[in-house]
Amino acid sequence: MNNYTPRPEHKFTFGLWTVGNTGRDPFGAPVREAKTPAELVYLLADAGAYGVNFHDNDLIPIDASPSEADAIKKSFRKALEDTGLKVPMATTNLFYDPAFKDGAFTANDPKVRAYAIQKTLKAIDLGVEFGAKVYVFWGGREGTETDSSKSAVDAIKRNREAMNFFCEYALDQGYDLKFALEAKPNEPRGDLYNPTTGHMLAFIETLDHPEMVGVNPEVAHEHMAGINFMHGVAQAWEAGKLFHIDLNDQYPGRYDQDLRFGSRDIKAAFYLVKFLEDVNYQGMRHYDAHAYRTEDYDGVKDFAVGCMRTYLILKEKAEKFNQDTEIQALLKEINADDGSMDQYFGKYSAEKAASLKNAEFDRVVLGKRRLPYERLDQLTIELLLGLG
Fold first, then answer.
1. What phi and psi, each to the nearest 5 degrees, are found at residue 41?
2. Residues 6 or more apart whose Cβ sits within 8 Å of residue 271
3. What pLDDT digit, counting tens, does each position of 328-383 carry?
4. Averaged pLDDT for residues 182-197
5. Where are the alpha helices (H) located in 49-195, listed in sequence order?
6. Which residues are known catalytic residues?
7. What is the span of the domain harbouring residue 51?
8. For 126-139, how does the pLDDT look when each residue is reduced to its tens digit (9 = 90+)?
9. Which residues pair with 178 in a beta bridge?
10. Do 359 and 312 share a structural domain?
């Protein structure tokens, strides 16, 4: 039991919008009363979280007066001081207000685009005020229902211009801040621009300050499109762009469900946790999910604890995988290398290419080599089922 108790070094974080979700959906009214940001901080501290993240309007309502904003920030800061919780990440809500019905940075109306940039600048200031080091951009309305309405090329250019602006602003202000872009294939728009982590990685390389910008992959968003999430995370990691990550769960091909981490596809969750732990990922393990609509706030706490426990259980399973004698023997057999091919790999040279072209390979023998993936996968399943 104690092995699965979250500790600060695990860096588990939740958004105010996750535990603060009132259970409202497109077909039903809220089932839980709204709690203040300060109350949610205390709830997360009681659950064992390390930190709390927020959209600007999760913390301060969009129509709050200056005095109301000051009062909210004061109570929120006191809750952070009382609990020791950190604010590692912040973001902007550019999807809820009707002003953003056609997008924010990519909207056709230049007044909307200017307002979106203004709102984001103020939200960046707010995040930095509370210590955020990562700032996430999720373009929930950056897309179309009909491509008759908007040029996709213009949308890319507008988005690039906005991101370049924010990078220059952060540098001008002397902020110690990195930006992370979050992809999603669709919803709430019919189609969203830069719909996958791979799209985002390509887009980042076109920016004026690509070193300041990475990605924030989310399990559910990639699974909506039927994509292997761990592979996208690995690509981001290998590129040095895994600045943040959103953990939850999702049935493929459905709307964005934001299920408790590991509650749907335990095998995919295992491979993800194993990857993050094997590469010694040092960032936050952020949960962008919410409790079932059936729950009260005791159930919300159960949800938060469950997210963290599942990660720690899978972390332990990953350690057992790496120590399992039979699994490691199979991996050694599969990856057997006598070094004889080393001469053909690495940087190109004309001599190496000529030598390789003249080499002889027995493709029949290559095709007959046994690769015991069935046994390896079964051992993985048995480990996850508690037999390892």
1. -60, -45
2. 230
3. 999 999 999 999 999 999 999 999 999 999 999 999 999 999 999 999 999 999 99
4. 98
5. 56-59, 66-83, 110-129, 152-173
6. 55, 58
7. 2-323
8. 999 999 999 999 99
9. 134
10. no
